[in-house]
Amino acid sequence: MSLSWSIVSDLRQLEGLADAWRGLLARSGSDEPMLSPDWLLPWWRRFGGEGGRELRVGVAHRGDTLVGLVPLLGRWHWYALGIPFRRLELLGTGEAEKDEVCSEYLNVITERGAEEELVAALADALARNVFGAWDELVLGGLDGTSPLPGQLATELRKRGAEAAIEETEVARFIPLPATWEAYLQGLPATSRYLVTRSLREFERWAGDGFERHEVTTRAELVEGRRVLLALHGSRWGDEGAFASPRFDAFHEDVMPALLDRGALDLSWICARGEPVAALYNVRWRGKIYSYQCGRRLDLPREIRPGIVIHAHAIRGAIAAGMREYDFLGGSSQYKRKLASASRPLVRLRAARRGLRETARLVAEGMTTAARLGRSMVRERVLARRSRSGSRSRSPSNEAPREEETR
Questions:
Q1: Where are the domains of the chain?
Q2: Exposed, middle or buried: residue 79 (CB in 10 Å: 0-12, 13-18, 19+)?
Q3: pLDDT, tens only, 202-221
Q4: Is CATH 3.40.309.10 the classification given to domain 4-170+345-363?
């Protein structure tokens, strides 16, 4: 039986698909929390009303069975010199930088075994403007280990579009072993020393006043959010993610939904009667995703509450039989120290050949040439200043130094 496509452009209709959507995720090879309705529906409610965004979610059925879901939206995007592009992009992406929720491991959702058929059908649907007229397709936050982005790029090229995939970030993670001791032994010596010393120094400093708390109820969630936001603000101040009202409101919606599904892993540790570190993780299909954290800065230098709370979370994940602890994207030093593996996050951009793309490339070339020109001028000015400075400091033009006359 062939696939049939429909486009969902109404939020209520999309909400009505939530259960079937969850079922499809469970049957797919891309069952990720940030592809779930518990993440993307709140995102649309908080961000969908700005920038002229319109829902363009592609839904593929075989008979009465949902076999594919492509969570897209449409909006205008302006490049240099005011060149407008009709853009299709994934839900969960494209926010203003200060509001970014950093959705990762996004993808086209397909039933296992139907990937190639659905990707080809998606490329056909895009070519026929089933999702509406578009100039470019931008899919960010994709799992670089999935074959689907490459397959989609190939299918789009067959249909006359330009398509390219670029690595945008690296996500570091821990393939969890059977025991905590095995994890420690698998670390480089410097990282192992960092973890063991951090735990030892913290326990010595905290004494009998050490406590670890985990959120399991709605009442505890209120306290856990309060602690997390306070400690995150202590660490990052006005530059912290929760300083954005939209980011904060989004997670005010998401956290209860995750808690109700047993997917919220929000914890904090106290020492000497005060919270010192908090961790906002997501528990999903045998994995822990470490999303946000916060810690106090006014502690002795040798006390590392951030390392300590991650160490407790990793040890707890091992004890629970989880298979992976994922730090998500970012190059923070603690991620490099604690993780033992990494995978790429990639971005797929496809563009239709035409006047808009040609104009964009010309404008991009002009911008690059202007930037190169400014750089060359700056280098020449610095070189002249350097030569002039060298001449003015030469012995023939400079009074002898006192030590040279002795």
A1: 4-170+345-363, 177-322
A2: middle
A3: 999 999 889 999 999 999 99
A4: no
